[in-house]
Amino acid sequence: MRRNQDSARGCPFFFFFDSGDFPRRRGFARLSRADQIGSGRLARTTVEFDTVDSEAGEAVAARRVAKRAGPRRAFGLARAMTTAGRFEDEFGSPPLVGIWYELTFSPDASGARIPCWFAELTATGYTSLSRGYITAAVRLISEDDPEPPPRSLGAAAAPRRQLPSELAAACNVSNLGGGQAAERLNNLPAGSAIRVRDVGQANFVTLELGGKPLLHFDVGTPTAFNKRSAPLTLPSVPERARTPVVLTHWDWDHLHGALQIPSLRRGPWIVPDQPLGPGAARLAHQLARKGLLNVWHGGAQGFGFGTVAPCSGPGGRNDNGLALIVSLLNGRRIAVVGDAAYSALSAPFHNGAFDGLVATHHGARLRSGDIPLAPSVGSPAYVVSYGVGNVYGHPHPEALRAYKVGEWGEPRFTAGRGRTRRGDRYA
Predict the structure, then answer these.
(1) For residue 59, what is the DSSP state?
(2) Is residue 9 part of a domain?
């Protein structure tokens, strides 16, 4: 495997590989995302777990999250694809984001099993990939999941136990960071351009002034699961930059670049108050120890560069993070909403508040009525950030048709289409 350079400017992306060394371990795991692929009876659901090793005990797992104790390989992301019905049969409940389990992983199939991929944490992020099985699961009682005991994986019934309190506290981002999120943004001026980086299946958006970064909105790069979509080089970021980051929500495809580009951990982060899995909490603690983590607790607020506002919707953390309207020097207003449904956006986004956008959720399926109408004047345009060969099938043709019904212009794809090569796009 080729090693990265110290500087992130033009450095080569890590080559992903199948290590063949699937871990035989137990781990505390939070179901961090669930995406339905296709429709109808045969639709599959992709589930992803954020995990930390539990073999050494509950207290050790909590210390590894909060105090950077122990090896990186204690952390990993596990991904499985199955039908929602089979998941419920094996795990005892539907695939709901926020549920905690203790999972047992094995390189060989023994007893009840769900095939999965495991991306182990390395010095360059979740890049080491291997394949094996989830052979047992115990669903844990947590604040997000106080329901009566369900079945465990491969068993008729199993007693439930509490998510360890130390681990729950370590994964609660509201316990971290100062209350100066807005103050961190007060002195930022308006920019001249919104640059949507070609990072494959991820989201990395930069507000620039004269080609220099003022502010990043998400800093995602693909994890090993979407290795095929990654470009050959990481985004070019000044090595000693302390550029602020506004994180729309705590999904890895919106923050994984922080593990691969050191300078992204030099500036202040403004983040939503959302429940975290062990790996995401580990990064939050690293930022907090440097005094760089700032948790947004207020409502919508305007700044020199635009507006930051919280979202509110039924779609879990996708719909309950932060969104932005960026006002450019040329008068254009661009909406950057992460993965939030447009119906989850707050009042500042209504009534023609923007005339350009970075499409939500990489072009995931939407109904026509979910998409705001384009303005009747100017040249409305939108950018779709996605990677060819991604495991979710983005962008969805129904979504592209819905944008057309909403009278938005021709989409600009970071992945490129037809005769247009992949690359950064400007919204």
Answers:
(1) H
(2) no
Q: C-alpha distances in angstroms, 47 versus 32, 33, 201, 342?
A: 8, 6, 16, 23
Whether 198 and 319 share a structural domain: yes
Based on the domain organization, do 214 and 280 belong to the same domain? yes
Q: Residue 183 carries which DSSP code?
A: G
- Is 141 within a domain? yes
State if pTM tops 0.85: yes
Q: Residue 59 CB: number of other CB atoms within 10 A? A: 11
Q: What is the pLDDT along the chain (427 residues), one digit of tens a residue?
A: 333 333 333 333 333 345 557 878 899 999 999 888 777 777 888 999 999 999 999 999 999 999 978 899 999 999 999 988 888 888 878 898 999 999 999 998 776 678 999 999 999 999 999 999 999 888 998 888 876 555 555 544 556 789 999 999 999 988 787 778 888 899 899 999 999 999 999 999 999 999 999 999 999 999 999 989 999 999 989 888 899 999 999 999 999 999 999 999 999 999 999 999 999 999 999 999 999 999 998 899 999 999 999 999 887 889 999 999 999 999 999 999 999 999 999 988 987 889 899 999 999 987 667 888 888 777 788 999 999 989 888 999 999 999 998 889 899 999 998 889 999 999 8
Who's near 14: CB < 8 A, 6+ residues apart?
A: 1, 2, 3, 4, 124, 125, 127, 260
Q: Rounded to an integer, what distance in angstroms lies between the CA atom of residue 103 and that of residue 30?
A: 10
